[in-house]
Amino acid sequence: MRQSQGELRLAGWPWPHAWDELAGLSSRWGGHMTRGTRHGGPYLMSSSSSASRLHGKGRVLIPLTPQEEAKCPSVSVEAFLNSTLTTHLLPALYSVVLLVGLPTNALACWVLVANFRRCSSTLFLLNLASADLLFVLLLPFKISYHLLGNHWVFGDYLCRTTMAFFYGNMYSSILFLTCIGLERYISVVHPFLWKGSSWMWGKVCVCVGIWLVVGLGMSPLLFHSQIRHISSLNITTCHDVLGKDKHMFLAYYFLSLVGVGFGLPFVLMTISYSCILVRLLAKGRQHRQLVCVLALVFLVFILCFTPSNVLLFIHYMLEAKGCHNVTYKWYIMALVLSAFNNCFDPFVYFYVSKDFRGWVRDAMSCCSGRLKTSSGRASEKTALPLRSSDSSSLRSRMTK
C-alpha cells in the first residue's frame, strides 16, 4: 500500500456497523491513520491526527456531525475481511453452487450439443448452459480466496480474468434468459412471424452479439488492476478493496451495468412472460401446467437477480445524495443468490422439459448400451482361448 495515497475502498459497496468501532480502530493506530468513509465505501487514509471522522461526498472529504454519523454508519475494512461471513459462510455457499451446478450444467451442455441437429431451437438454451458452466468453473478460485482469509495468491491478471468472467457470465445468463423469454413470446403470441433458416441465422447473430457486448462490457475489469495489499492483515485482496481514484469510474460503470445488463432485460422479460401467461390463460385450463412452469421460470429470475442489482442501484443513488448506504453485507449475500441461479437453471429450463428428459434417458441408455457391449466383447475375448483349447483337446481325443 502506497503511503502517499494511503487510501483503500471497497469495490462499490459498504457494509453496516457502528461508528464507535471506527473510533476504537482509529485510536488503536495511535494517530498515524484515521478511518474515514467516502463516496463508494470505507477506506484507510494516511493522516497525522485522528481527531475527526470524515465522510466523503464525491472526492471531497467533509466532517460529519453526530446526527449525520447516526444516519451514515460504516465499518472497518479489516473487520469485514476477517468476518465469519466472508471466510466461512461465503465459501460454503459457493461450494454448494459448485457441487450442484458443475455436473448439472455439464450434463445439460452435453445433451444439448448431442441433440442440436434434432432441435435447433435449443440454441439459446445451449448458450445459457455454457455461460452457467463457465461461471461454475471459476468458482474454485473464489472459494479458495475466501477460505484463505480473503487472500488472493494467483496474481493480478488471474484476478482480473476471474472477476471479468464472474460478472460477465452472470450478465450473459440474464441476457440469454431474456432471449429465451422473447423466443417463447414469439412462438406463442406470433407463431408465424419468423420461421425457417432466416430465423435460425438471426438467433446465431443474437448469440454472437451478446457474447461480444458482454466481453466489451467486462473489458474495464480486465484493463484495471483488481488487487490491493492490506499491510495490517498481510493479505492481498481481489476486487474487494480498491483505490479511491477508481471510485467514480466504478460508480458509473456498475450503474451502466445494472441498467443495460439487468434493467432492460427485466422489462423485456416482464412484458414477454406477462403476454404469454395472458394468452395461455385465455385458452382455458388445458395449458395450466405450462402456465405454472412459465410462472416458476419468471419467479426464479426475479428472486435470483433482482436483489443484487437493486441493492447495487440503491447504494449508488443514495451515495449521490451524500449518505453512505449500508448495503454491502446484504449485497454480497444477494450475489451468492445470483450464483445459485446456475443451480436452478438446469432444473427449471431443462429438466422440466419432456423433450430434454427424453434426451437424457436416450443418452444414459446409449452409454449403458455401450458399456454392456464393451463388457460383452471383453468377456468374449477371455472366453475364446478356453473354447479353442477345449476344441483342440477334443480333436486329440478323437484322433486317438
From TrEMBL:
Transmembrane segments annotated in the record for this chain: 92-113, 125-145, 165-186, 198-223, 250-278, 290-318, 330-352
Domain of life: Eukaryota
InterPro entries given in the database record: GPCR_Rhodpsn (IPR000276), GPCR_Rhodpsn_7TM (IPR017452), Pro_rcpt_2 (IPR002281), Protea_act_rcpt (IPR003912)
Cellular compartments per GO CC: plasma membrane
One Pfam match: 7tm_1
Region of interest called Disordered, as start-end residue ranges on this chain: 378-400
Its membrane topology: Multi-pass membrane protein
One Gene Ontology term of the molecular function aspect: thrombin-activated receptor activity
Disulphide bonds in the chain: 159-238
Keyword match Transmembrane: yes
UniProt keyword list: Cell membrane, Disulfide bond, G-protein coupled receptor, Glycoprotein, Membrane, Receptor, Transducer, Transmembrane, Transmembrane helix
This protein's record includes keyword Transmembrane helix: yes
Subcellular location: Cell membrane
GO term, biological process aspect, one: positive regulation of Rho protein signal transduction
UniProt domain G-protein coupled receptors family 1 profile: residue ranges: 104-349
Composition skew (Low complexity), residue ranges: 384-400
Family stated for the protein in its record: Belongs to the G-protein coupled receptor 1 family.
PANTHER family linked to this entry: G-PROTEIN COUPLED RECEPTOR, PROTEINASE-ACTIVATED RECEPTOR 4
Name of the featured protein: G-protein coupled receptors family 1 profile domain-containing protein
Organism the protein comes from: Calidris pygmaea (Spoon-billed sandpiper)
